[in-house]
Fold this protein.
Amino acid sequence: MPDPFFIVGNDRSGTTMLRLIVDRGPDAAVPPESMFLTDFAAAFEAGGPRDEQAAARLMREVWQHPKVRLWDLPPQPPAVPPGLSGQDAYRFIAAAPFEAYAARQGKRRWGDKTPHYVHHVEHLLRLWPRALFVVLVRDGRDVALSLRRMPFGPNNAWAAAQWWARGIRAGARAQREHPDAVLTLRYEDLAQQPEQEVRRLCGFLGLSYADDMLALEHVDPARIVPDQAAWFPTLFDGINTSAVGRWRREMSRRDQRVFAALAGAELEQLGYEVGGEGRAEVTPREARWFRYHNELMRNLNFLRLRLVQERGRELRLALARRLRDPVKRNQ
């Protein structure tokens, strides 16, 4: 199989839209988020499964991962080839669900759309040294507004600005350190000039372009995980600019100033105007209140998402991510 590619960036930056665009093309299949590539990363870093029994056990664990189970794959995973062990066995195991998903779609190549992997580019390059990455960025204030109705992520402008800026810095670092392997796209450019940007994307990834890739209004809604459908109420309206610059109309002036105070440098770096309201310094007292509010809502949303919406499907793994991953701990 050709080398994989990854669509990464901050959540609510349009990565699902971009996933569906690429998935509509003739060459590549892109399933819903995987997460298992970091959930099982320690096994790779430790050298991979040591023998055939350990490899078979890891394959079963990956195949039963809650994210993979949503991909509607065959019930039994493929067998790990005899004699394959260590990191080579791990690569075979990690690729197997994606290859099965691509085969089911009749595609020759697979990609992954997991925004959080923007913080794990180095790990993925150790797995697949010739992998390619598409970093999708979007004005952080529009991202912050979109996150307000999500059961995950930061819960106020103070927290959102810092979380968004960390993701932007991670993407910029990947672009700087691996310029031939990373392409950065702006959501706004994709919405305003979809054909031009998608052609550029296809050229970078080595994919065939087809006009039908842009027809999101014809996408089968089943491509979205059922219990996440409410997160994308306008996705199937087609590519448009209705969500560009919402912050000018819907974000309070106070929140605009707070966001600019904490992420103004990243906004300017990406060519976004900081806004006429300038930057407001956040006092220590305000920061304490913002932190308390964010932590309270974060924990309530965690319970809402993991226990109510997902019915415990990913609870164990989600808890492990929060404990293990410094980026997740700071969200």
Remarks:
- The two ends are 35 Å apart (CA to CA).
- The beta strands are 5-9, 28-29, 109-113, 132-137, 182-186.
- The domain at 5-27+108-329 is CATH 3.40.50.300 (Rossmann fold).
- The chain is about 50% helix and 5% strand.
